[in-house]
Design a protein that fits this description.
Protein name: RNase adapter RapZ
Keywords: ATP-binding, GTP-binding, Nucleotide-binding
Pfam families: PapZ_C (PF22740), RapZ-like_N (PF03668)
CATH superfamily of the largest domain: P-loop containing nucleotide triphosphate hydrolases
Largest sheet: 5 strands, parallel
Order of helices and strands: EHEHEHEHHEHEEHHEHE
InterPro entries: P-loop_NTPase (IPR027417), RapZ-like (IPR005337), RapZ-like_N (IPR053930), RapZ_C (IPR053931)
Number of strands: 9
Number of domains: 2
Strand content: 15-25%
Strand order of the largest sheet: 2-3-1-4-5
CATH architecture of the largest domain: 3-Layer(aba) Sandwich
């Protein structure tokens, strides 16, 4: 049997994840008291294979029961069962925004202080996060993209399927993406902004991409960038990193950065990596 423990920050998308896992054929139980995990496994074994994929949601909603989680997981493993932890995370800014949009209060907030509740929850969940096989940051994922990530993880499998690359294009005049692991500045490339027929277009247009990429400097840079990414990514995976956020910036975030990011995304996808593109400042 395959057991997945779903946990993570409140507001990071656990409810949607449960629905997606059910669609993938998992038998899902939300907020099961941890002390019942070994007993629940015994019941699943008696189904003689009818239930062979189980996803259990465990989070701070369990209150005092949640404190028993690690003891229960040890007993579960002593029974001969293995499990993996899927940890859902998101930036504080994203979580606060989601709470304000839904007008809900954080389960650990005092006097409605959402930020304080999030910080306390991070402390309580830190050990679980360190144990996680997969850490999925949902800050930049819409529901469709989250479903696709889960499909890759639990239908297709494989080491590369547990690693996600987020490519973000941006304009330096609008500020850099603060959650980026790597930043590449492509303002040295020819700028279509100064060509009247290209100024109103973006890097999504083939004419703009041809203008940016059809020169020796761009070709050399892209080759070096691709080789560096192929060197870095396996090393990040080896060190246990689950997601890489790469920012590609130009002046306005509409022409050069978009052109380079599209070419890089296509190259990485051809090498079997999963890439999500976000053009932050294209509008």
């Amino acid at each position: 049997m395959k057991f997945v423990i779903i946990t993570g920050l409140s507001g990071a998308g656990k409810s949607l994840t449960v629905k997606c896992m059910e669609d993938l054929g998992f038998y899902c139980v939300d907020n099961l008291p941890p002390v019942l995990i070994p007993r629940f496994a015994e019941l699943c074994e008696k189904t003689r294979g009818s239930i062979d994929k189980i996803a259990l949601v465990m989070d701070i909603r369990g209150g005092l029961f949640f404190d028993d989680l690690f003891i229960s997981l040890d007993a579960f493993r002593d029974q001969g069962h293995d499990y993996e932890i899927l940890f859902l995370d998101a930036s504080d800014e994203t979580l606060i925004k989601r709470y304000k949009e839904t007008r809900r209060s954080h389960p650990l907030s005092r006097d409605g202080a959402i930020g304080a509740g999030i910080r306390l929850e991070r402390q309580k969940l830190q050990q679980l996060k360190e144990m996680a096989v997969t850490i999925l940051d949902t800050s930049r994922l819409n529901p469709t993209q989250l479903k696709e990530e889960l499909r890759h993880l639990y239908l297709e499998g494989g080491e590369r399927n547990h690693f996600m690359i987020s490519l973000i294009t941006f304009g330096f005049k609008h500020g850099i993406p603060l959650d980026s692991d790597l930043i590449f500045d492509v303002r040295f490339l020819p700028n279509p902004f100064y060509e009247e027929e290209l100024k109103s277009l973006t890097g999504l247009d083939q004419r703009v991409r041809s203008y940016v990429l059809d020169n020796e400097t761009a070709v050399d840079f892209l080759e070096h960038l691709e080789n560096m990414m192929l060197f870095l990514i396996p090393n990040y995976i080896r060190e246990g990193k689950h997601q890489l956020v790469v920012g590609v910036g130009c002046t306005g975030g509409r022409h050069r950065s978009v052109s380079i990011a599209l070419a890089l995304a296509n190259y990485l996808q051809q090498h079997g990596y999963r890439v999500i593109l976000e053009h932050r400042d294209i509008e």
